[in-house]
Amino acid sequence: MISFFVNGKKVEVDVPEDTPLLWVIREELGLLGTKFGCGKALCGSCTMHLNGEAIRTCVMPIAAVAGQRITTIEGIQEDGLHPVQKAWAEQGVPQCGYCQSGQIMQAISFIENSDRITESDVIKSMDGNLCRCGTYNKMKTAILNAAKSMGKA
Amino acid sequence: MFISNRREFLKTSLTTSGSFIVALTLPLPHRGWKAFAKGESGFGHHYFEITPDNQFVFIMDKAEMGQGVYTGQLTLFGEEIKINPNLFQVKSAPVAEVYSTFNGHMITGGSTSTADRWMILREAGANLRELFKMAAAQKWSVNVDQVECKDGQVFAQSGTQKLTFGELIEDASKIKNPPKGKLTDPKDFIYIGKPQVGLDAMEKSKGSDRFGIDVQIDNMASAVVERGPSFGAHVKSFNASEVKALDGVIDVFKVSSGVAIVCEKYWQAMRARKSLIVEWGPGSLQDLDSEGIFTSYKNAMEKTKAHEVEREGEPESAFAGADQVIEAEYRLPYLAHSPMEPMNATAWVQKDRCDIWCPTQGPSLVRNKAAMMLGLPREKVFVHNSVFLGGGFGRRSTLDYVVDALEISKKIKRPVKVLWSREDDTKHSPLRPITFHKMKASIKNGRVTGWQHDLGCESIMQYVIPQWFGLMAPDWVPDFLLGSLGKMVSFFMSLSGKAPTVAEGATHIPYTVENRLVKHYQLGIKVPIHFWRSVGHSYNAFVVESFIDEIAHKLGQDPMEYRLKNMTHNDRLRATLEIAKEKSNWGKPSQGRFQGVASHSSFKSFASEVVEVEVHAGQIQVKKVTAVIDCGTPVNPDIIKKQMESGIIYGLSAALQGEIKLSAGGVDQSNFDDYPPLRMSQTPEIEVHIVASTEKPTGVGEPGLPPIAPAVANAVFAATGQRLYDLPLRLT
Ligand code: FES
Ligand code: FES
């Protein structure tokens, strides 16, 4: 049994130690907002937060998060929308939408862990998250808008 | 062609629960109409429903894969029925004849959805609006022009009376001869032409949107399929008992595409797969590699007879009498579509029915394929299409991943979800065909007098038709005939040289040249190929627009001016080029940057793009794109802009770093590390200008792509003096 916290709640799972966190979350815990894109830490679709930091969960063995705090897109805001999600919807960023939960999780951890944000910071911190539909420019605008609304740009 | 004047165009009825439902008849062939006439599916299948408590339910028969069709369709319908598109609930359509539009099939592709429904959905909306107005007017004993509609309510102009559509259902359904509504004057549009963020933006920002990969069915197993190292390889043996003994493994067995491992969970199947050892028999294509294919096309062009796709004037005499002949050869690689959501399908095959949950661009193909494979009547197969597809680009109109799920579910007698890994898709995706081109232009007195394009490329249609024919044929064609008929059609197509889509963009070039010849060569290569975003235009535009640029330079003319001067019979394309010239500040690039231009018409739209590049240490950086599109009446400028950006970025991924290379009959690449889409840091500033127009809307999802690769190559030439003939673009 491995126990850890997901969106503030303690959970216990009985899976081999090297099972990727992504699949524990999706298949054992049934939270489907986080996506699978590459399985090799190459695209960012599977991004969640480990103690508030963005991580690629498709390569994160479950044993490595024992006792720690995981946040998924479902747990990012108790009620209503996170300012980043709000900025996203206002800009109409998503196209197919598939990569977007990973993008949003990446953006949130980056903004929340920064003091002030410039466009080049946005590019640097988002560059590992791929979007096959090419939503990058709208995304950039949304992130800067969100950062502004959070007093960080 | 539209048949909106048919009496059956719009049918309405009441359900037992008191909802008001509406069915439409779509354009040719009139399958929908037939279904009604026979009363087979009747109102079991419909487009639109109003519930007694005034909820509006729209049945979406198109696949939303990021192109905005969901928003587009509701905008057209909402405009005329005067309901804010945001107020509809959307459900995805089952497979039924009423929804067939694409040669009688439910297929989303070819940038056609908005164009095809432009009148149908608006007329349906207008007629319904009129119907409810009439119902209210009768109730209030006033003239119909004294009432107005807004958001599903009818108001009396004179007073305070109002009724919802829901409250008017009974009255509306009693009206015997529903009136024909007048279409809204474009100047009065409230939704069409207004930039609106996609209706799905909120759901997709919350992360509550669901895709095929998220399907959950009771008692569902999870499976992966190991495929061979080369196309056509077959399973000789595998360590079944060893893998079967592993934790969580339900079964391991051979399927037509390879070896399936079935577990309860995907993570278990992934683990088990690491222990699977398969001995593969050599594939029929194991001697094939990309370099060899280019050489074979080149040889074929010297030795074999081609099919002439286009002949105008007397090209041979033009070349014979030329002062100078300009020649060039181009090589373009195979490409995978690589949508972000990996291939997946969930199926439950039972004795007398089959259910399939999958993200697909062609639900009717999926249904008919399952019926054929399982020997079930088509009406016993139920396709539950996902409302959202995690990208398509053509990839999701193939059936490979569906076949996996059907075979496995049949064998294990349980519902099963098959999920391909990224590597599975990169290595086994049906590909955008590899192409080889020889171009020739004759120059006489400083003018181009002759144009010859030799095109080496396999035909997607000839590859796909034997597989699809049986699926597209009507129900009454007996099964034993289907396979052989498909093969025959394909055979006759190849005999007669018919290869639709192969030469699109190579014929009817927008520049006036009196003597032209376009020839097509095929080798009969059996590597799986498929429609890839913008199809034939994706390679022909690169070749034509690169070659024209080279000609302009060799004639000592500015490539923009040369194009404008010679583009004498395509006014709408020329107009986009004029705008691109102005908006991009042509001739005055920013410091350190170089410009390139390309112009191309596809899917009935017109697009011109000017790029600015910088070249540093042999690296090409695209800094800015000024894009102009004329796609007829812009239904939603925000979505058009997004689709242009998307097409440009998809095209840049291919132009700068997209290559699927074949060695020993197998694909070298495997994941996003060796087949990478563009990243944010590589994405240029993209400025999109939409031409104001009142023409019928035309394609938007694809036309932005074809001009981008040649525009970049032309800019690279401006920057370095090096002309690049091969994709992806690499400086030496
Ligand atoms: S799925 Fe984890 S980074 Fe791609
Ligand atoms: S929105 Fe489709 S992959 Fe990013």
Explained architecture:
- The complex is a heterodimer of chains A (153) and B (732).
- By secondary structure, chain A is of the alpha+beta class.
- Chain A has 2 domains: 2-72, Beta-grasp domain (Ubiquitin-like (UB roll)), CATH 3.10.20; 83-149, [2Fe-2S]-binding domain (DNA polymerase, domain 1).
- Helix content of chain A is 34%, strand content 14%.
- Chain A has helices at 21-28, 83-91, 100-112, 119-126, 136-149, and strands spanning 2-6, 9-13, 47-50, 53-56, 69-71.
- Chain A has a 5-stranded mixed sheet, sandwiched between helices.
- In chain A, a hairpin with a 2-residue loop joins strand 3 and strand 4.
- Chain A starts with a strand and ends with a helix.
- The model of chain A has no long low-confidence stretch (mean pLDDT 96).
- With 732 residues, chain B is an alpha+beta fold.
- Helix content of chain B is 32%, strand content 23%.
- Chain B has a 7-stranded mixed sheet, with helices on both faces. In chain B, strands 1-2-3-4-5 form a 5-stranded mixed sheet.
- In chain B, strand 20 (435-444) and strand 21 form a beta hairpin.
- In chain B, helix 2 packs parallel to helix 3 (113-140) and helix 3 (113-140) packs across helix 4 (165-174).
- Chain B is globular.
- The two termini of chain B are 51 Å apart.
- One FE2/S2 (inorganic) cluster is lined by residues 36-39, 41-46, 56, 58 of chain A.
